[in-house]
DNA sequence: GCAAATTAATGATTTATTCAAG
DNA sequence: CTTGAATAAATCATTAATTTGC
């Protein structure tokens, strides 16, 4: 059925540069030729045909593509680098807060935890979305007041518990429930300063935690 | 006008614990008393009144608040730590991609750059919002094909330029425009391998870049 | 240095949740 | 399933601590 296709010089549909051609082209590119003129392309083409079949359009396309892809690579590398720097900076900042217990680390952390950024980091896309939509989140840290909105006081008789406990306490009724160890409660041998108390009380959690 | 307000024991509206009282309370808390019973509160109160005016409810509230805020502090420390780890992990990952030119770093970075997360990091709240709303962004990296959607081929006559240039080249019209230095174009002394080309061509940009 | 202004800490209250008994 | 006691979480309000502009 099939007719006689030339079995010798298989008709490849597109130019396939030989290693020598590639080397030369790259060298010229590095040498400063980024967008050769028509005449330059002609010269290059004739020179490169010493190393294999080649046409002017091949040279033209090669420089076009090479330049574009060079720019692309650079752009991406730059962005990646920027991102790395961003991460480094963030990390340093948080490490500082973490290590030194900075005074305002709480508010910063709270703001972060409330941000759509954090929610996205956690994969809570829906939350982040609605938050952004409602304009509920302010990027400015200083106006990050809670949006309590309308807390209807539905429960006006809710302080009963507290009052009962208070009555219990203030009406002087000692020794009621459970095992009370009144005497052991006051082993007051405090030689620890308040500052020491605070600093030693806050331990670093063990680092076997993972994200998400 | 103003009547005689007791000028002696200025009527402070709320209890202000003396340093001794605080020390004792903290010591007891550290000793294990987290939610004292009514009777315990009574004992503590009577003991602490040796060091200054105090009521049962003060003790009650103090333990409530102290316990709650202790938990809170722990929680926040944990979260901060988690966040630090997250950042570290991200950083290490990107550093790896950056340093080693990993094969799929491009798609990863592209995906990140297209994500609302990145837009939020840049402060482009609106963009992120609409993106999330439209469901335009897929969190799963594996289905992160560009949502090219409907790229209407509005530009059907766009290859005209290209065609003109091709004609210029292949119709063999040498020495047309500009200063052509045909001979100096081929100083082919290439001893550089392709690999070296690539690796040396991509330099790290200078680190004076800032986020946002 | 100091006094007003801002911010953080914490005592006091209110609201929400848990859990056991009925 | 409902109820109520107990407690945890959230919030309000005042005091202590810091910053800031003379």
From TrEMBL, chains A, B:
Q: What is its main location?
A: nucleus
GO annotations of cellular component type: nucleus
Keywords, A to Z, come to:
Developmental protein, DNA-binding, Homeobox, Nucleus, Transcription, Transcription regulation
- What's this protein's family per the entry? Belongs to the WUS homeobox family.
Q: Which GO molecular function annotations are given, in alphabetical order?
A: DNA binding; DNA-binding transcription factor activity
Question: Under which name does UniProt file this protein?
Answer: Homeobox domain-containing protein
What InterPro entries does this protein map onto?
A: HD (IPR001356), Homeodomain-like_sf (IPR009057), WUSCHEL-like (IPR044555)
Q: Alphabetically, which GO biological process terms does the record hold?
A: plant organ development
Where's the DNA-binding part?
20-74
């Amino acid at each position: 059925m099939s007719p006689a296709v030339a079995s010798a010089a298989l008709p490849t549909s597109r130019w396939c540069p030989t290693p020598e051609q590639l080397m030369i082209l790259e060298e010229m590119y590095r040498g400063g030729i980024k967008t050769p003129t028509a005449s330059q392309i002609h010269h290059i083409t004739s020179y490169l045909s010493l190393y294999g079949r080649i046409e002017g359009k091949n040279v033209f396309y090669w420089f076009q593509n090479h330049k574009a892809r060079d720019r692309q690579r650079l752009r991406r590398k730059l962005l990646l680098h920027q991102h790395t720097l961003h991460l480094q900076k963030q990390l340093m900042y948080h490490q500082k807060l973490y290590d030194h217990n900075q005074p305002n680390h709480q508010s910063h952390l709270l703001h972060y935890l409330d941000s759509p950024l954090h929610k996205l980091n956690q994969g809570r896309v829906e939350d982040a979305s609605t938050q952004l939509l409602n304009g509920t989140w302010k990027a400015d840290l200083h106006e990050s007041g809670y949006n309590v909105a309308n807390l209807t006081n539905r429960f006006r008789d809710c302080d009963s518990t507290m009052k009962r406990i208070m009555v219990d306490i203030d009406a002087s009724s000692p020794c009621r429930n459970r095992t009370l160890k009144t005497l052991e409660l006051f082993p007051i041998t405090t030689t620890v300063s308040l500052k020491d108390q605070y600093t030693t009380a806050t331990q670093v959690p063990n680092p076997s935690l993972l994200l998400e």
